[in-house]
């Protein structure tokens, strides 16, 4: 039985965008394995939005996996955790609005 407030997604892209927007609202500047965070990669001078795997639901993880968002090991304090690492500049072509939202969220945290 379907509820009246059920949201329909025409594709995984729209669902992934909603997931990323929700994670942007939870983002912090300090590295955490419990919350998404921003970091500036020292090697390539790129801003990265890092979403540790353990702060995602199984559905969110599956959606981001299916769309081939890059996963890397990320150092947090004295250990490494698996995380999705999204560079706003790289998604500029496919979703300029989302890339802009990421940069705005980062700048808001800096204030």
Keywords:
single chain; 111 residues; alpha+beta; 4-stranded antiparallel sheet; 4 helices; 39% helix
Could you characterize what this model shows?
This protein has helices at 12-26, 58-66, 88-91, 96-110, and strands at 37-40, 47-52, 71-76, 79-86. It is globular. The model has no long low-confidence stretch (mean pLDDT 90). The chain has 111 residues and is an alpha+beta fold. It has 4 helices and 4 strands. Helix 1 (12-26) crosses helix 2. It has a 4-stranded antiparallel β-sheet with strand order 1-2-4-3.
Can you count the beta strands?
A: 4
Number of helices: 4
Molecular shape? globular
Low-confidence stretches: none
The main β sheet shows up as: 4 strands, antiparallel
What spatial order of strands do you see in the largest sheet?
1-2-4-3
Mean pLDDT: 90
Draw up the topology in text.
Blueprint: H1 12-26, E1 37-40, E2 47-52, H2 58-66, E3 71-76, E4 79-86, H3 88-91, H4 96-110
Antiparallel strand pairs: 1-2, 2-4, 3-4
Give a brief description.
The chain has 111 residues and is of the alpha+beta class.
């Amino acid at each position: 039985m379907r509820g009246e407030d059920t949201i329909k997604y025409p594709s995984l892209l729209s669902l992934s965008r909603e997931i990323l927007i929700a994670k942007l609202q939870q983002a912090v500047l300090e590295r955490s394995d419990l919350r998404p965070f921003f970091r500036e990669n020292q090697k390539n001078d790129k801003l990265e939005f890092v979403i540790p795997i353990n702060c995602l639901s199984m559905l969110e993880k599956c959606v981001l996996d299916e769309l081939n968002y890059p996963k890397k090991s990320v150092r947090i304090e004295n250990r490494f955790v698996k995380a999705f690492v999204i560079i706003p500049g790289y998604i500029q072509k496919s979703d300029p609005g989302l890339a802009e939202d990421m940069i705005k969220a980062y700048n808001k945290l800096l204030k």
